[in-house]
Amino acid sequence: MRGGQMNTWQADTVAAQRRPVGGLVGVDVAPAIHPTAAFAAPTAAAFADLAVRRRAIDFYTRYGNPNHAETASVIAALEGGETALLYASGMAAITATIVAFGTGARVVAQRELYGGTAGFLDSIAPRLGIGVDFVHHDDLAGFDQALRTPATLVLLETPTNPLLRVTDVAAIATLARRAGAVLAVDATLGSPVNQQLLGLGADIVLHSATKYLGGHGDLTAGVAVTSNDLADRLWSDAYLFGATLSAHDAWMLQRGLRTLPVRMRQHNRSASAVAAHLTEHPAVVRVHHPSLVDHPQAELIARQMTGPGGVLSFEVRGGLEAAERVVSRLRLPSRAASFGGPTAAVVLPARMWSGMGSATVEDLVPAGLIRLAVGLEDPADLNMDLDQALS
Ligand SMILES: Cc1ncc(COP(=O)(O)O)c(C=O)c1O
After folding, report:
1. 276-316 tens-digit pLDDT
2. Separation of 210 CA from ligand 1 center, angstroms?
3. Mean pLDDT of all residues in 146-151
4. 116 C-alpha to center of ligand 1: Å?
5. What is the mean pLDDT of residues 7-34?
6. Per-residue pLDDT averaged across 240-267, rounded?
7. CA of 91 to the centre of ligand 1 (A)
8. Which of 42, 145, 245, 279 shows the greatest Cβ crowding within 10 Å of its Cβ?
9. Which residues are in coiled coils (predicted)?
10. According to the model, what pLDDT value does residue 157 have?
11. 110 touches ligand 1 (CB under 6 Å)
């Protein structure tokens, strides 16, 4: 309990609000699943009412579903937001936001973005008539300048994938507000446990829920946490775009959320231990992780984050070929594209990013960079494995 506010995570408070169904006295402790495409209305009048209701959760699952509503309310509570919309992937949440708030107008985006987001802005946004100006994540004067010309959307990502750069959300929120632009931030790497960005002035917090929120590597999902007003606007496009999360994945996501705080505590601890270990290794040139005191934004991290997250990256001597050798020799982490699950995963961003359509990969991703996402394993085991792979 903190200042009268309970810390118990929200999945359990949602369970406490459940009502008995079908004349039962007992109430489900675990959420029920509603794998139905459509819902039958009792009368023609009720059908007509549901057909035009915004964000209905009992008309047609593409419009909404009780599993969406329950899972979204848990995520909204974790982020301190009014509401949340669920999508079929993180990219669906991001692109729906860009199209809803950027079409026919101008987006100001940070240059250091996940390769898929950068790829969309570089290669698809121009075809949709969306103008994009890029500013480096730490260039506040650049954001100030860019936001002196009318803009509708500012898009940030913090910490960044794969270099763990951190962006000053409060400072850019002030500039976005002055320009009348909506501020959306991809907060996937931090999770709501390590940072609360709506409180710093973000209007929309985006996640690839495929990662920490789901937490088990067994679903693909995205989420936008925001106000009821902005959610209505996003939903008006989203139900027509049709990138709806299935009821089953929404239900699985809620299951994952029940352990999010404990998982994140372990990810934070383990990744910090592995990052510290790597800084001592002679074959490693540089380590990137928010836990490190020599991180270029250490002061901002202390203000903005309460934990560093489970993703780190490091550069090895010898560039791409040396990095490929290290990745091939590792035994514990899977050589797999995602992160946020119970087991460690490793990728070579230079190889992965070049397939995502962004024009600026070489400038942003060092060739010898290895991204390692720790899982829930003992960090001592990972350190031992890294030592043999780097030797
Ligand atoms: C920071 C970030 N944002 C968005 C995405 C895209 O998410 P998804 O793969 O769920 O579409 C990813 C995927 O790795 C990511 O790392």
Report:
1. 999 999 999 999 999 999 999 999 999 999 999 999 999 99
2. 7
3. 94
4. 7
5. 74
6. 97
7. 6
8. 245
9. none
10. 98
11. no
Which atom of ligand 1 has the smallest separation from the CA of 160? Answer: 1
CA of 1 to the centre of ligand 1 (A): 33
Distances (CA, A) of 214 to 89, 149, 255, 342: 11, 39, 8, 11
Rounded distance, CA 344 to CA 333, Å?
4
In order of their start, the domains of the chain are 260-390 (3.90.1150.10)
Report the chain's C-alpha Rg in angstroms.
21
What residues act catalytically? 62, 114, 186, 211
Total residues found in the chain within this entry: 391
CB 204 within 8 A of CB 224: yes
CA distance 274 to 257: 25
Does residue 191's CB lie within 6 angstroms of at least one atom of ligand 1? no
Can you tell me the mean pLDDT for 244-263?
A: 97
Q: Whose CA is nearest to atom 15 of ligand 1?
A: 114
Contact 246 CB / ligand 1 (< 6 Å): no
